Amino acid sequence: MTDLPSHVEIHEEGPREGFQIEPGPIASADKIRLIEALAETGLQHIQICSFVNTRLVPGWADAEAVAGGFTAKAGVQYTGLFFNGNGLDRALAFKDKLTIGGSISLTASEGFTRKNLNRSPSENIEAMKKHSVLQQSKGVAVTRIGVMAAFGCNYQGDISPAQVVGTLRDGMAIAAETGAAIGLFSLADTMGWATPARIERTIAEVRSHWPDIAIALHLHDTRGLAVANAHAALKLGVTQFDSTAGGLGGCPFAGQPKAAGNICTEELVLLCEEMGIATGVDLDALIEAGRLAEAIVGHQLPSELIHAGSLNAFRRIAA
Amino acid sequence: MTDLPSHVEIHEEGPREGFQIEPGPIASADKIRLIEALAETGLQHIQICSFVNTRLVPGWADAEAVAGGFTAKAGVQYTGLFFNGNGLDRALAFKDKLTIGGSISLTASEGFTRKNLNRSPSENIEAMKKHSVLQQSKGVAVTRIGVMAAFGCNYQGDISPAQVVGTLRDGMAIAAETGAAIGLFSLADTMGWATPARIERTIAEVRSHWPDIAIALHLHDTRGLAVANAHAALKLGVTQFDSTAGGLGGCPFAGQPKAAGNICTEELVLLCEEMGIATGVDLDALIEAGRLAEAIVGHQLPSELIHAGSLNAFRRIAA
């Protein structure tokens, strides 16, 4: 039984995810060049930077320069990532250009919460209550619960659908206590444990508890299954995905320095368009943007499609 | 509607596909080392070499040394690729170690037939009639029709399911005329045009004409969709796949020197096992064999999984 959506909403995170883990500094002008190129492809949601501790993430020391410097295209929503009040204040300084939405961010793995955030799960719940209140106090609606390590964790092993539901219950309790109305669950495969079978089981379980809340997926290609995972999710009617041009990115905190990045936007777009699911994206332009990203970082990116070229490119040669 | 198989038959082609395209010579002893390592993983079908024109494919000038030199493991079927009578004779010299099956090999794309074989489609049909007779005259049963470029072609563009059916009809006519009983259609995505949607349409169309003939898939990861394609095919009950350890391979004749190789055996095994489909393969041992393949060729292979490590490896760390 399939329930294919008519269109998907792709949230491009290449600039934010990709540039934060590059070993060398990337010029702000190059970051802006990629952001502006991506906006010309038809992508309507682009995360442009991360307002994080610049000591921990030196690759985003220039978040303000990028947020201030790029030219926004009408009809495109731009976002910046933030995790705390300081980051939110930095984002709010650009509220004329950025779309600022609030989140409750949890992790299904206790091991990852301790390793990545240096908090126990209950400390993290308390922190998220404060963060939910804080965001709303600054006029930012909290509508989304994010769950990291939703399909497995390098520090804890398998994560069951029941653990994801438990984490979402924690999140919904935080939302209820702090007056937030949740419309979206974002499930992140932070360390690349998802497989189509896990995607199917977890989505079914989450939907059985919250049939009216939309599900978004943040997939990594760590073990090569990201596109297959998206395929499984599309068959279940999932309509929102994060992805990165060229497969930029990866998780520098997960103990896998050679791990592949996020699901490639190009490959996700090819998958969707071939299934008759509209993305609004011009794939040939997107492939060019992916090649620009590769040129900017100066090393080969994981996307196979940017190297092989689109079907259209060969159709034109064959015609 | 899904019809998941209980098990799949994986035909490992890494040694044959992979070593034929490496620019430098690979020592016969290294080829044998990989073949013997693969046989220890639980793989039961391994294509070990190519009995082809050594002037055109210098990487297989040592086919006899490899076929003669490796130690066969009981319960494992080893094959060698051949395209003509000379290749078949060379394979038959090792009939005590190799399983030798006959094929009718066609291409759904006229453009590729002309470019790759330097024949018109009708010339190729005549050649295949002679080849079918020849194989049978040497006691080799012809039970398989192979179709290259079954999902699209860099020289011709899209290939429709109707074109694949037409090609298979040609093949069945050759089989009928030459007294061959066909039990398997092998559809090859030679240049990486397949997508899950194309897989579904083509398999449905082929089955509507020949419901009782098994379908095998030979997938390339040229555009990053190979694992998603396998996922779509498994959902349709396809039970035979070719793949290569580490993602070795690629097609040196398709005008894409940077193209990725075949679907990675490791990622295919992970996909299947997670879907509850038995492969008989020890994934951790297979990942080690993929890493051995990478060490032998001396450059990074496309498999993400051999770099990230298996879920089991992290389960052990987390435990």
The tally of beta strands of chain A, per DSSP, is 10
| Main sheet: strands, sense, barrel of chain A | 8 strands, parallel
The name CATH uses for the topology of the largest domain in chain A is TIM Barrel
CATH class of the largest domain in chain A: Alpha Beta
User: What portion of residues of chain A is helical?
Assistant: 40-55%
SSE class of chain A: alpha/beta
Please state how the strands of the largest beta sheet of chain A are arranged side by side.
3-2-1-10-9-8-5-4
- Gross CATH architecture of the largest domain in chain A: Alpha-Beta Barrel
Largest interface (CB < 8 Å) = A-B, 50 and 50 residues
The oligomerization state is homodimer
Stretches with pLDDT under 50, minimum 5 residues of chain A: 251-256
Number of domains of chain A: 2
**Helical segment count of chain A:** 13
Secondary-structure element pattern of chain A, one letter each: EHHEHEHEHHEEEHEHEHEHHHH
CATH superfamily of the largest domain in chain A: Aldolase class I
> What is the CA-based Rg of chain A, rounded?
19 Å
- The portion of residues forming beta strands of chain A comes to 5-15%
Features:
homodimer, 319 residues, alpha/beta, TIM Barrel, 2 domains, eight-stranded parallel beta sheet, two-stranded antiparallel sheet, 13 helices, 43% helix
